[in-house]
Amino acid sequence: MGRFLPLSLITLLLIVAFLRIPSGLTSVHAAPNLPPRPTLTPTSTPAPTSTPVSPAPNLARILLVAGSAYEGAWTVVQWQDKPGEWHDVEDWQGEVRNGWIRWRVAPKDWNTGPFRWQVYDKADGTLLASTASFTLPTGPYGIVWVAPTAIAPEQ
Length: 155
Description:
1 helix, mainly beta, 11% helix, 3-stranded mixed β-sheet, Immunoglobulin-like, 5-stranded antiparallel β-sheet
């Protein structure tokens, strides 16, 4: 520590000396024979016209609120046909993360149903829970929240 003190003092003295030396720089002024600059007059800006904004078409969602009990579980959304058979929706399958999973609903599918969510221990695994049937949101910004009910294990 003792050997750094003289070096620090020398550095400080050099900085102070440098700051006290006149720089020799002078300010620059425009020549007196230049023409005057025109004075700009501000113009008024037209007020923006309001244009109705159409809502984004794909903001409807379905949301499975599964909770931590199903963290990492595999989920599949299914749709029911007229005879009553359930079919997997290929693009709406995935793992529960942070207790939930959600999917976008395309406008062509708004207000259709019935659908349900199935919760499995893993892909192609054992069914753990299911939701009641539900209808998809009816329009933009619509959201349908569902929660699973545990399936009793077969005895």
